[in-house]
């Protein structure tokens, strides 16, 4: 087993775990950045390739099979310290990076001259984590801006869910690897005749009613206060999604087309904040049409 770490002297160190001893030995160490090296990460598809970011605002790529003091590439695209990097474990050529410049950049590793998208998240990006099963979604802990989930497959990698931690800084974030059961939810959508309402004062102008929210990020557990959102479980301890609209026992044939059944896909997200030393567990629910 190999590990990579960075340090305040700007160095990267590759460590090898010898399970027979057991011992942890440094197999390679080199000067990678002129200032603090904030982050180092493996390419999940090729563990000989390493990415690093430092307080010198540089993003670098390294191949440990070659001379370690010579980077494969160096990018100056970030304008401040690069403090988070993660290779996408589901999409081979996708890399995400975050910086104190408050931007999350998506990269195609086959062409590192320019990022494929740039998302301003209004806070330094301390942590990036790809969804454990869906390569589209990226979780970001963004200091005073809170926690965001980005959709990397949509144009511009927009933010699809957010939560701001008041009076503190979002420092770390990760997804739960435990799968929660998916359940179908019937969502009542306004009929086309009800979707538009005249604007006060008359005229031909109309205003569109907002669509039902497709994403939800809600607090589930908070430590040290140990407060729980008890609506998530039934008497047997099973997960119960919140109804998004009306549900009933009508047969499928009796349900009008304006009411669509959608699949509730739910994940748990854990975050920690800096000043108040609190761990939060969130429930993120997104809806997708049932085939």
From TrEMBL:
GO biological process, alphabetically ordered: protein histidyl modification to diphthamide
Pathway recorded for this protein: Protein modification; peptidyl-diphthamide biosynthesis
WD repeat positions: 75-117
Enzyme nomenclature, EC number: 3.1.1.97
Protein's recorded name: methylated diphthine methylhydrolase
Region (Disordered): 186-214
A cellular-component GO term for this protein: cytoplasm
Reactions accelerated catalytically: diphthine methyl ester-[translation elongation factor 2] + H2O = diphthine-[translation elongation factor 2] + methanol + H(+)
Database matches in PANTHER family: DIPHTHINE METHYLTRANSFERASE (PTHR46042:SF1)
Keyword field contains Hydrolase: yes
Family that this chain belongs to: Belongs to the DPH7 family.
One Pfam family this sequence matches: WD40
Matches recorded under SMART domains: WD40
